[in-house]
């Protein structure tokens, strides 16, 4: 009897490995164990909860959670890549470049281009489902931020205020307001840029989160000591 059960377990393990090639060993063992409980009998309610459909749904729920974690990790990496590229753009536009010799400036600019090229070799793509209006809204938001970055060298203080005005579009709670006040108290009174806010509200929630992170990274650079 024990031999027969072992043979059955081995068969089930091989069957599940074929059906679910990406399942871990622990998940396969759990599915086999549950299936054997079903085959061994028991009350009707217990069998019903452990039928193949239930096992499949459990596997799919686990895989769905794994996919969400994968998307989040990929989006974090994508955000990190964009933050790095944004920082390089800010340095490229920095007023500090005007205080060094032409030879030194050329050296710095070449170094910036080298780092930028290396960063762009990292390709991370997480598709966000957007309709036409959301695509246009995201384009408008990115255009406004790009324009702000280009203006940093000409008007550092104005760019700070503009970045804060954009960030204020995200502030809907006391904690966020306190954070902004603490990092830019010299820029009072703060206001919301209505044009930016209107475009932002047309974006997906995922895009809004990425835009917020990008703006926070830009503001951190803008208010850093070397840009005072």
List keywords for this structure.
mainly alpha, 10 helices, 0% strand
**Terminal Cα separation, in Å?**
81 Å
Helices and strands: which structural class?
Answer: mainly alpha
Tell me the major beta sheet: none
Mean pLDDT: 77
User: Uncertain regions: pLDDT < 50 for 5+ in a row?
Assistant: none
What gyration radius follows from the Cα positions, in whole Å?
A: 27 Å
β-strand amount: under 5%
Instruction: Specify the helix fraction band.
Output: over 70%
Tally of DSSP β-strands: 0
Inertia-based shape: extended
List the total number of helices: 10
Compressed to H and E, one letter per element, the order equals HHHHHHHHHH
Structure report:
The protein is mainly alpha-helical. Helices cover 73% and strands 0% of the residues. The chain has 10 helices and no strands. The protein has helices at residues 2-19, 25-40, 44-49, 52-92, 102-120, 132-150, 156-167, 174-183, 194-201, 205-222. The longest helix is centred in the first third of the chain and has 41 residues, at 52-92. The mean pLDDT is 77.
At a glance:
The chain has 228 residues and is mainly alpha-helical. Helices cover 73% and strands 0% of the residues. The chain has helices at residues 2-19, 25-40, 44-49, 52-92, 102-120, 132-150, 156-167, 174-183, 194-201, 205-222.
């Amino acid at each position: 009897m024990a031999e027969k059960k072992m043979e059955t377990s081995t068969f089930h393990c091989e069957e599940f490995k074929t059906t679910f090639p990406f399942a871990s060993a622990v998940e396969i063992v759990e599915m086999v164990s549950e299936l054997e409980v079903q085959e061994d009998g028991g009350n009707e309610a217990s069998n019903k909860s452990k039928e193949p459909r239930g096992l499949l749904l459990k596997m799919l729920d686990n895989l769905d959670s794994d996919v969400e974690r994968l998307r989040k990790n990929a989006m974090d990496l994508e955000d990190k890549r964009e933050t790095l590229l944004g920082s390089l753009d800010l340095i490229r536009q920095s007023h500090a470049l005007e205080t060094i010799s032409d030879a030194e400036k050329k050296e710095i600019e070449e170094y910036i281009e080298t780092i930028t090229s290396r960063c762009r070799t990292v390709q991370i793509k997480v598709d966000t489902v957007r309709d036409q209006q959301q695509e246009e809204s995201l384009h408008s938001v990115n255009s406004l931020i790009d324009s702000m970055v280009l203006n940093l060298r000409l008007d550092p203080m104005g760019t700070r205020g503009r970045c804060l005005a954009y960030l204020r579009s995200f502030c809907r709670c006391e904690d966020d307001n306190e954070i902004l006040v603490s990092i830019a108290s010299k820029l009072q009174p703060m206001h919301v840029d209505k044009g930016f806010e209107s475009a932002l509200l047309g974006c997906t929630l995922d895009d809004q989160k990425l835009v917020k992170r990008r703006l926070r990274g830009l503001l951190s650079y803008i208010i850093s000591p070397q840009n005072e």
